[in-house]
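Internal ticket #5521
Category: modeling
Description: The requester needs a full-assembly model to guide mutagenesis choices. All entity lines are attached below as received. Residue total reported by intake: 360.
Assigned to: D.W.
Attached entities:
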Amino acid sequence: MKSSDAAPYEPMDDFDFAILDGIREFFAQADPMPADLPERIRFSLAMRDLEAEVARLADEEDSRLTTARGVEQSRTITFDSESLTIMIRIDPNRNGTVRIDGWLAPPQRREIEMQTAADPLRVSSDEQGRFAFPSVPEGTARLVVRAAEHDQGRPGRSVVTPALIL
Amino acid sequence: MDDPRSATASQGRADRRARIGALLDAARDGSDDALGQIVTELSPMLWQVARATGLSSGDAEDVLQTVWLRLLSHLDGIRAPMALISWLVVTTRREAWRVRASGRRQLPADEEWFSELPDQGPGAEEQVIIDDQRRTLWAAFGQLSGRCQELLRILAFVPRPDYQAVAAELGMPAGSIGPTRGRCLAKLRALLTG
């Protein structure tokens, strides 16, 4: 077949496009984008805060607990940013909402906001860095740890997590 | 590899480009909804760009979030769908390699894609022939260098009208009339037909 000595600088023909179509079909099937990713990106674009420090997902772990009420699934997620590590544990409530328990490291008092599609929820962490949202609606949400008053003379920055699906 | 929809594919591509152009104009005028629709439309392509560098899923998600946030401050300078797609692909690739170089988590070698070809289930004779063609393609693709695999995986997801601009941005030769196949595709053709 003459195409075997196809030169790199020749214009592309139907065979080239068919090859690319084949590659695309393969990867679209073998490694598709997570279906909910665009929704999470849209959510973080809508709630943008250009001054904030963005925390990165550092670790995520699912565990199944067998309790008196049956098998429950709990997720533990860790976010890292330059100034803070945020760890949260998400447990389902019986009414379709979730409970979130969280810890800040290093431990400190901060105002913490849970931004959801509905109104934001606000709590404060205690001196040990612990905080809790007893009832958060399911759906897309993200945490914002509000700037500390002053960080050794410098104005502090808020820390936001990527959007997550609860 | 014949696509039964190819008769309408060309029209479909023109429509898609016009739609992205209109969304881009609206997004520049501050429409969050238009921007959101662009995100939905183009993220699957950017996912492939990020993953082609060998990033884990979690890192690829972070990269996409970063790139879309960064687009907000560049939106004013981006006037045409081609420029948008080109900017997104190049920025995603650069950010993905930056994260990869920081070396937090990486996938093992690329071979794993090719050992587990998705099974199409029991099929008629036609299906067997198509599967055969696919197997031949993956076997050949797997013999390419890592860089060629990455470039071809990216280009396979770039909308055809923008192929030339993106290929040029990625350092592949662009012809004066239309896109040229470039060294990686020429090598793959040789493996398939040689």
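Resolution: model delivered.
Comment from assignee: Chain A has a mean pLDDT of 84.
Ticket closed.
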